[in-house]
Amino acid sequence: MEKTKNQKEEKEVSNSDVIYTFKFNNELEVNRLGYGTMQLNGAGVWGDSSNRDLDKRVLHSAVESGVNFIDTADAYGPHTNELLVKDAVGAYYDSIVIATKGGLERSGPGRWHVNGKPEYIALAIEGSLKRLDKQRIQLWQLHRVDPRIPIEETLAPVADAVRAGKIQYVGLSEVDIKVIERARKIVPIVSVQNLYNLSERGWEHIVDYTAKNSMAFIPWFPLASGPDKLKDRLAHIANKHNATTSQIALAWLLKRSPNILLIPGTSSLAHLQENMEAVQIKLTDREFEILSK
């Protein structure tokens, strides 16, 4: 029997319409499911973890499983994380993209201090190049904007490094549109890394802004499951797909916008493989809408 106009038909378009790669500046292509290294440190993101050999195996397994975008930072450790990345996946540098960040100093476990002074930023860039053992950083991101320093001054040495061929692309973290547009007058911006997940969507407008401007949006803390009401929805949909709630959360982000790059982090080989399998989940449009409410 033919449906009337008043009868709403549930769309069953699924993640098969999702593109799983993204190109920085329409040139440098990466898989949208990457890996973030923050958890490969000691407590408070301080020093190496208690099992550096396992951390190296996790990184190696990530690349072997198809990850070609790895996000680190000079503040993780500090410095130990970049050295770990070089030791674990340096042999893959020809086929993967390494993103790092600068602009935060550390004084102890769990302690982070913004430093946007141009002289510090210049030293941070040189330090990352040395620790990662790279001639050029493919994506360098300003970890945080220093409210004491005009961003034009902070980014001056970054623009110098781009001109010198030491940085290929530049990104920002935890920024609004005004800051992005000020930064774009100094150096091209290809990515923004802000807090964003199913339950924390204060940066929705930045997701849309970056998509409109062909920039990557890299949500940090992507696996938060949110309040109980959202957890119930997640659990219901996860059961239908024989998946975990974390996998559904990742699948939702992949469907949310084609410019979203995911960097879920883990120090567990089993959890890594669970995250990688999220691309196999085919959310319907209706399921996406239910989770988006």
Short key terms for the protein model shown above:
293 residues, alpha/beta, two-stranded antiparallel sheet, globular, Aldo/keto reductase
SSE diagram, text form:
Blueprint: E1 21-24, E2 28-31, E3 35-36, H1 52-64, E4 69-71, H2 80-89, E5 97-102, E6 104-108, E7 111-114, H3 118-132, E8 137-142, H4 151-163, E9 167-173, H5 177-184, E10 191-193, H6 204-212, E11 216-217, H7 228-241, H8 245-256, H9 269-276, H10 285-292
Parallel strand pairs: 3-4, 4-5, 5-8, 8-9, 9-10, 10-11
Antiparallel strand pairs: 1-2, 6-7
Helix pairs in contact: 1-2, 1-9, 3-4, 7-8
Protein name: Aldo/keto reductase
Domain NADP-dependent oxidoreductase: 32-291
InterPro entries: AKR, Aldo-Keto_reductase, NAD(P)_OxRdtase_dom_sf, NADP_OxRdtase_dom
Could you say which overall geometry the principal axes of the C-alpha atoms support?
A: globular
Number of helices: 10
The proportion of residues forming helix, as a percent range, comes to 25-40%
Unreliable spans: 1-14
| Count of extended strands | 11
The fraction of residues in strands falls at 15-25%
CATH class of the domain at 29-224 and 260-265: Alpha Beta
CATH topology of the domain at 29-224 and 260-265: TIM Barrel
Distance N terminus to C terminus? 32 Å
Order of helices and strands: EEEHEHEEEHEHEHEHEHHHH
Architecture (CATH level 2) name of the domain at 29-224 and 260-265: Alpha-Beta Barrel
Across the major sheet, the strand order is 3-4-5-8-9-10-11
